[in-house]
Design a protein that fits this description.
26% of the residues lie in helices and 26% in strands. It has 482 residues and is an alpha/beta fold. The chain starts with a strand and ends with a helix.
Length: 482
């Protein structure tokens, strides 16, 4: 690792101010913490390209560790502490880190790692008083690996260069969110997802304040929104629905909130209208993945038709292609292929291995179409299309209709193998509290509202839908119940 002398020092690490519980950490204080962590890591002399895992709960020190770690010239690998131990172990074995940065709450989670891996306590690093040091930061060299949520399979490590992170902060902070230094932004989950990284970089870019909540439970989010006077939040559909339900009857529950950005699942006009009316906010819609964020972004859902994910985000080119990779006519469905500077480098497959690099072009695996106004509509995952009796059924289409039933709180649709039809549609249903539903009733209702081939042949009632750590429905877990 090349370390620069102090005569060529860059400015201090740029950090946002942070509110954590009742404590406010100034941007200068967080910058000092980030620099202390950077110095302590550089003092250990790790080789260029080495991976440093960040395994810490959502807190100010974790944000400082992320931003300080990115100034070491090494590769930072944030890992969600809520992951099951076997999944953490798989990530450790895949990333092969030289060190793990952790906190008191999670140090025990590192017990099974190789003895050669350094376990570094964030509290101890902040006390080390290591000599000031600066690494050479190359914009296009890998700086961060984020593992996907695994909603449809095993998590994969997505590699990002430093230039992506700097551009991410500018694009979201200025062009999409439209933030300024007076804004207060909610950070509802650990800095191990593309959502959290986006919120940190955007907040830092505009000099705003980041509000940390240790839990992404709706009640904790509601309390934080009110106490910290949050002005902007990014969330997923399921959380937005819970927050709406839990504040029903309150008069203007979030008077400071002005923007709510929703992604992760289909955002209906009915839901966004209810949110906008109840909270007096602008509802934005984002379609993104860990590999490309954002892909589309819709500023104010009311400006586009129901179901639209918005136009392509600035700097993003989207092609819609058939199975042979050929462009399809406007309005016809196909796979979305994205290119441009918002595309990550590729998947992590080991040092000096570029076999899984995207080369600036990423096939999303998502199916959709584009209207005349340039809005994109996402209709499902190519791997999740249900082939039943010669008909292609897109689960989101069926989920959208079923969710309109007055007794359904939420629903997920999958295909179940069938000897005669190939597959049949099966719906996992969470009833609304106080509603008693039957399979016969729901199937009969479906036949009145869906084409016969799209109607569920089976209904499974469940108390909750399993979720990934980023709030998406974990359909791979539901598939085990078929």
């Amino acid at each position: 690792m090349s370390v620069q002398d102090l005569s060529a020092c860059p400015p201090q690490i740029r950090c946002p101010s942070v509110i954590e519980g009742e404590t406010r950490v100034s941007s200068s204080d967080l910058s000092w913490r980030a620099a202390a962590i950077r110095n302590a890591i550089l003092a250990r002399g790790y080789q260029s390209g080495a991976r440093i895992v960040l395994l810490a709960s959502n807190c100010a020190n974790a944000v400082a560790a992320l931003l300080g770690g990115l100034e070491t010239g090494l590769i930072i690998v944030p890992v969600n502490t809520a992951l099951p131990d076997p999944e953490k172990k798989r990530i450790f074995e895949d990333a092969l880190p030289v060190a793990i940065l952790t906190d008191k709450q999670n140090v025990r989670e590192t017990g099974g790692v190789d003895a050669t891996v350094d376990i570094l306590s964030l509290d101890d690093l902040l006390k080390e008083d290591a000599p000031e040091a600066f690494a050479e930061i190359k914009p296009e060299v890998p700086a961060l690996v984020l593992y996907t949520s695994g909603s449809t399979g095993n998590p994969k490590g997505v590699v990002f260069p430093r230039s992506y992170l700097d551009g991410n902060g500018k694009q979201f902070g200025e062009e999409l969110f439209g933030l300024n230094e007076t804004d207060v932004i909610l950070l509802p989950m650990e800095v191990s997802s593309i959502i959290s990284i986006t919120l940190v970089t955007a907040t830092r870019h505009v000099g705003a304040t980041l509000v940390i909540t240790r839990s992404h439970r709706p009640d904790a989010i509601i309390e934080t929104l009110q106490r910290a006077k949050v002005t902007m939040m990014m969330t997923v559909t399921t959380v937005a629905e819970f927050v709406l339900k839990m504040t029903e009857g309150m008069d203007d529950p979030f008077p400071d909130l002005r923007i709510m950005t929703i992604g992760g699942n289909y955002v209906s006009a009915a839901l966004s209208d209810r949110l906008a009316e109840a909270f007096g906010v602008r509802i934005d819609v984002i379609y993104a993945s860990t590999e490309v964020a954002p892909t589309t972004y819709l500023i104010d859902r009311k400006s586009a038709p129901d179901g639209a994910a918005g136009p392509a985000a600035p700097g993003v080119d989207i092609e819609i292609v058939d199975p042979d990779g050929q462009p399809v006519p406007q309005g016809e469905p196909g796979e979305l292929v994205v290119s441009g500077p918002r595309v990550a480098i590729g998947y992590w497959t080991g040092e000096n291995d570029d076999s899984m690099h995207f080369n600036g072009r990423f096939a999303t695996g998502d199916l959709g179409y584009r209207d005349e106004a340039g809005n994109y509509f996402i209709i499902g995952r190519s791997k999740e299309v249900i082939k039943t009796g010669g008909l292609s059924v897109y689960p989101p289409e069926v989920e959208k209709v079923l969710s309109q039933h007055p007794g359904i709180h939420c629903v997920a649709v999958l295909g179940k193998p069938n000897a005669t039809l190939g597959e049949v549609v099966v719906a996992f249903v969470v009833p609304k509290k106080g509603h008693t539903l039957t399979s016969v009733e729901l199937i009969a209702w479906s036949k009145k509202n869906l084409a016969s081939g799209k109607c569920p042949r089976g209904i499974k009632f469940v108390e909750t839908l399993p979720q990934t750590t980023t709030g998406k429905v974990a359909k791979n877990e539901l598939r085990k119940q078929l």
